[in-house]
Amino acid sequence: MKTRDRILDAARQLFNREGVTGVSMRDIAGQLEMSVGNLWYHFKTKDLIVAELYQQLMGEMFAQVQQIPPERDSIVSLLDSHRLMFAVQYRFKFFYLNLYDVLDQHPAVKELYVQFSQQNREVAKGFLQEYEQSEVFARSLSERERHQLITSGQMLNNTWAIDAELFYAGDPKGKLLHYMQICCQLFYPYLAGKAQKEYDAYFEALENDES
What we know:
Blueprint: H1 3-18, H2 25-32, H3 36-42, H4 46-66, H5 76-91, H6 93-97, H7 99-105, H8 107-133, H9 143-167, H10 172-184, H11 193-208
Helix pairs in contact: 1-2, 1-4, 2-3, 4-5, 4-8, 5-10, 7-8, 8-9, 9-10
């Protein structure tokens, strides 16, 4: 692993454990057993580390979206994508646990966050319309319903990690499944009968998977 990647990985783990404000450049250097000067050679400030980690997070999230097959005749591919995205979010949970502070203290990250959120809304709107047309959804949604569904989804995606950190005492695998179900339950009432059966079977299989 390249030094720059080692720095980012160590910083991510420290941020997840201690929070962004609780970690200094000296802490990151100490974790890697390198001098602060060597760390500064790669990243002049902690802000640059936070910004690059956020770009990594967004890159991995977009990669999962890109893997959703173009066919919209089944809800399973969307659920698979959500499951992988939740795993990505958990790897970068520091961002969601410290969302307001990170955005307030790192303007460059805030700008990227706003751009990503707007892009994500458009992508989600397109997916909903395609699932409506393929009759995975029981009926077409109104613009207001789409807006409320997308907004509710974004709010849950931004806050589930906080609830999990405070109240969920189980293992990480169970934690991800629990909160994924809560978030995905938003669109369950809109699914057609066949899609609801696929949805139920999907989560039943995950719950019974002991691997």
